[in-house]
Amino acid sequence: MTEGTTSAAAEGADTLTRLEQEGEIAADYLEGLLDIADLDGDIDMDVEADRASVSIISDAGGRELQKLVGRDGEVLEALQELTRLAVHRETGDRSRLMLDIAGYRAQKRSELSELGAKAAAEARSSGEAVKLKPMTPFERKVVHDAVKAAGLRSESEGEEPERFVVVLPA
């Protein structure tokens, strides 16, 4: 192995270790939160797409965890930010950690991928740009990825919280 290969491998291992550390810190923080709220949930950690991913899942079908998701995922977004702040406080580094509760984000990702694919098909067949409703950064990212996978381009327009995706024809 060359020296460059060794350092690249070491850097990749360091990144994985850092992301695993973020997941551990987040899991500890969220376990404390679940205890305070007297909610049951299991915490699952992973590293996906160069970011730590933490999920709270429930054996009871996730009904009681819905409180932590809130309307349109608003509580989930707030908890994700608080968890990122907890990680930042411990590590000193800004975190891009993703939090999912009761499969909400996984379900939302599936719906948004379908929406992006449909919008791409509509833009392709009509030759017109397709504007979608305002979305959160997470939602826009999923739609952009689906449009790209369909072979078209998209861009975000507008200002938060009214920022939206525009799917461009070929």
Secondary structure blueprint with pairings:
Layout: H1 3-37, E1 42-48, E2 51-57, H2 74-91, E3 98-101, H3 104-126, E4 130-134, H4 137-149, E5 153-157, E6 164-168
Parallel strand pairs: 2-3
Antiparallel strand pairs: 1-2, 4-6, 5-6
Helix pairs in contact: 1-2, 3-4
Can you walk through the features of this model?
The chain is α+β, with helices and mostly antiparallel strands. The protein has 2 domains: 3-102, GMP Synthetase, Chain A, domain 3 (2-Layer Sandwich), CATH 3.30.300; 108-168, 2-Layer Sandwich (Ribosomal Protein S8, Chain: A, domain 1). The chain has helices at residues 3-37, 74-91, 104-126, 137-149, and strands at residues 42-48, 51-57, 98-101, 130-134, 153-157, 164-168. The protein has a 3-stranded mixed beta sheet, with helices on both faces. A hairpin with a 6-residue loop joins strand 5 (153-157) and strand 6.
Helix content: 40-55%
The low-confidence runs, each spanning 5 or more residues with pLDDT under 50, are 1-6
Mean pLDDT: 91
- End-to-end separation in angstroms reads 44 Å
CATH class label of the largest domain: Alpha Beta
Protein name: Single-stranded DNA-binding protein
GO molecular function: DNA binding; RNA binding
Keywords: DNA-binding
InterPro entries: Jag_KH (IPR038008), KH_dom-like_a/b (IPR015946), KhpB (IPR039247), R3H_dom (IPR001374), R3H_dom_sf (IPR036867), R3H_KhpB (IPR034079)
